[in-house]
Amino acid sequence: MTSNALVAVTGAEGFIGSHLTETLVAAGYRVRAMAQYNSFSSYGWLETLSPDTLDQVEIVLGDVRDSGSVHDLAEGAEAVYHLAALIAIPYSYRAPHSYVDTNVTGTLNVLEVVRKLGIPRLVHTSTSETYGTAQTVPITEDHPINTQSPYAASKAGGDRLADSYHASFGTPVVTLRPFNTFGPRQSMRAVIPTVIGQVAAGEQVITLGDLRPTRDFLYVKDTARAFLAVGTAPAEAVVGRTFNAGTGGEISVGELTRLIGKLMDTNLDVREDEERVRPAASEVMRLVADATRLRDATGWQPGHDLEQGLLRTIEFFRNPANLARYKTGIYNI
């Protein structure tokens, strides 16, 4: 893929999508960025990017559930990065049809458009949640798929479609499976912004769900670089393959919360809120990545450790203008 080429990003207005857009522009690409259509004409986090970055970004409102929107987004692009998804696990218990519509049918629309337009590369986004609780550690890409929530099942459905399009039609798709990405701009639906946001808002009593699960937390800038790595690597190294992106380290939610309290110089009173606890059989208790395949194929490796990423995230949430965008006093589903 040549520098100054046009690439397309679905879900660009979101947390990871906005960071990926910045990373692509910094690498010399022009970006056509899809933000989900809404009556407020909001471009989400794209609105916070620097003017110099936005000079290289064409923002379009659309919806991956509509094939025409996807066609208009992708036409003329040398690569499509497909990040659009419904992501919140608790809400997937309430609205599973919505997850199938976006994460399965939306992915099908992207695959069809990429196939029909002959686009040279599609990077499809998976999630470590498709593995379920680790049966072996660290988790390689050969680990069994065990979907413990409607969200995870819908993402696995999209993954299987991506695999099938490569096998059936030779569609040049590569799947990236990030583990628990965190950083500035993340939704309060995730544990790290939940804790940091509450502390930044002056709270010392922190309400969370189960404190026992462990996760492999990957700083968002490193996740964005992983997308760029699989999007630009030689086709023979990546196309038709799935890659984990993670650090290989793990920490429990309870330990993580204590670490955040230390970094924010605050003594926290952590309490479990039953409303935030997943159904027992749906809770994924352990996730830790083996990213050897990604490193060997592309040379990628994380550039930030957990504390470095947390400090940058804390700095973001301590900015009053950023904190004002969040509702820290409620349970964000």
Automatic annotation (TrEMBL):
<dbReference type="InterPro" id="IPR036291">
    <property type="entry name" value="NAD(P)-bd_dom_sf"/>
</dbReference>
<dbReference type="InterPro" id="IPR045869">
    <property type="entry name" value="Arna-like_SDR_e"/>
</dbReference>
<protein>
    <submittedName>
        <fullName>SDR family NAD(P)-dependent oxidoreductase</fullName>
    </submittedName>
</protein>
<dbReference type="Pfam" id="PF16363">
    <property type="entry name" value="GDP_Man_Dehyd"/>
</dbReference>
<feature type="domain" description="NAD(P)-binding">
    <location>
        <begin position="9"/>
        <end position="310"/>
    </location>
</feature>
<dbReference type="InterPro" id="IPR016040">
    <property type="entry name" value="NAD(P)-bd_dom"/>
</dbReference>
